[in-house]
C-alpha cells in the first residue's frame, strides 16, 4: 500500500519548561506562536510560520533528553543558504548553546551540503543546514555522515 501525498506534518517535543523552549525556538527559527494553552498539567504551545503549524511543545517531562535510549536521534531544518546557517549560529552563540562541532561543517567528506549541530535547552539534538556552501573543510566524522554521530 502506498500512501499518496505523504509528508511530515508537524513535530511535537516534550520539554521541561514551555516558556523557555518557546523563547528558544522563536529566537533561533523565527517561529510565531499560533496557539498556547495552560491548565492543570496542560502547558503547551503551537509554533509555526505563515499560519502553518510546524512544531508543538508540550511541558510533560523533566530531566534532559536521553540520547542513549531508542527514539528521536535529531531534528534537521533546511535553509536556503549557508549564510542563513551562519546567522542562526550567531543567535545560538548569544544564547550560549552547546554545539557538537565548531562552526559550519560538511555532511561528509567532499560534501558541499552541511550546517551546524547543537542542542536545545532540554538537550534535544538539532541541525540547521544548507544544501550547498559548506564544502571546503574536513568532515568531523571520517567515513560516516556527520549528522549521525553527534
UniProtKB/TrEMBL annotation:
UniProt protein name: VOC domain-containing protein
Entry-linked PANTHER family: GLYOXALASE_BLEOMYCIN RESISTANCE PROTEIN_DIOXYGENASE, LYASE, PUTATIVE-RELATED-RELATED
SUPFAM superfamilies on file: Glyoxalase/Bleomycin resistance protein/Dihydroxybiphenyl dioxygenase (SSF54593)
Gene3D superfamilies from the UniProt entry: 2,3-Dihydroxybiphenyl 1,2-Dioxygenase, domain 1
Entries under CDD domains matching the protein: VOC
Record bears the keyword Metal-binding: yes
VOC domain boundaries: 7-131
Keywords for this protein: Metal-binding
A matching Pfam family: Glyoxalase
GO molecular function: lactoylglutathione lyase activity; metal ion binding
Biological classification of the source: Bacteria, Bacillati, Actinomycetota, Actinomycetes, Pseudonocardiales
Amino acid at each position: 500500500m502506498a500512501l499518496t501525498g505523504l509528508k511530515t506534518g508537524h513535530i511535537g517535543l516534550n520539554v521541561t519548561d514551555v516558556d523557555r523552549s518557546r523563547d528558544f525556538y522563536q529566537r533561533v527559527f523565527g517561529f510565531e506562536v499560533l496557539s498556547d494553552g495552560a491548565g492543570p498539567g496542560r502547558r503547551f504551545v503551537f509554533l509555526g510560520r505563515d499560519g502553518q503549524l510546524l512544531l508543538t511543545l508540550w511541558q510533560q517531562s523533566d530531566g534532559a533528553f536521553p540520547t542513549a535510549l531508542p527514539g528521536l536521534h535529531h531534528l534537521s531544518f533546511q535553509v536556503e543558504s549557508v549564510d542563513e546557517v551562519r546567522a542562526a549560529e550567531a543567535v545560538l552563540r548569544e544564547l550560549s548553546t552547546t554545539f557538537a562541532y565548531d562552526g559550519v561543517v560538511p555532511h561528509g567528506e567532499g560534501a558541499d551540503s552541511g550546517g551546524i549541530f547543537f542542542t536545545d535547552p532540554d538537550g534535544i539534538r538539532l541541525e540547521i543546514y544548507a544544501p550547498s556552501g559548506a564544502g571546503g573543510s574536513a568532515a568531523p566524522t571520517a567515513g560516516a555522515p556527520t549528522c549521525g554521530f553527534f
